[in-house]
């Protein structure tokens, strides 16, 4: 499993990034997605982030990609309240 977490300040860019990542996996929490453990998928995601998003990021933005191994233990509590809903923030 691959986990992708992001903290993007701009609402417009955050929504665009969320829609992009949603093509590859599903939302665990507001800014955390789970992706199948596939090198091909991961490479596609990294290339797309570098080509289409990285130039738009400010010093307040970050994306973290965590590759888990078969030996990792995932412990979850509670229920994700937003698995299938996009988050749209309007100022």
The residue-averaged pLDDT reads 86
Q: Could you name the CATH class?
A: Alpha Beta
Number of domains: 1
- Report the C-alpha radius of gyration, rounded: 13 Å
Strand content is 15-25%
Can you walk me through this structure?
With 91 residues, this protein is an alpha+beta fold. The protein has one domain (2-67): Alpha-Beta Plaits (2-Layer Sandwich), CATH 3.30.70. Helices cover 30% and strands 23% of the residues. The protein has a four-stranded antiparallel β-sheet with strand order 2-3-1-4, covered by helices on one side. 7% of the residues are buried. The mean pLDDT is 86.
Summarize the SSE layout with pairings.
Layout: E1 2-7, H1 11-22, E2 25-29, E3 32-35, H2 39-53, E4 62-67
Antiparallel strand pairs: 1-3, 1-4, 2-3
Offer a concise description of the structure.
With 91 residues, this protein is an alpha+beta fold. It has 2 helices and 4 strands. A 4-stranded antiparallel sheet has the order 2-3-1-4, with helices on one face.
Question: Keywords, please?
Answer:
single chain, 91 residues, alpha+beta, Alpha-Beta Plaits, 4-stranded antiparallel beta sheet, 2 helices, globular
């Amino acid at each position: 499993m691959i986990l992708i977490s992001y903290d993007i300040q701009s609402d417009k860019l955050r929504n665009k990034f969320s829609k992009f990542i949603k093509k590859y996996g599903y939302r665990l929490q507001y800014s955390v997605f789970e992706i199948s453990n596939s090198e091909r998928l991961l490479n596609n995601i990294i290339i797309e982030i570098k080509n289409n998003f990285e130039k738009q990021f400010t010093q307040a933005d970050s994306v973290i990609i965590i590759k888990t191994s078969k030996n990792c233990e995932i412990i979850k509590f509670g229920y994700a309240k937003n698995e299938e809903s996009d988050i749209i923030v309007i100022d």
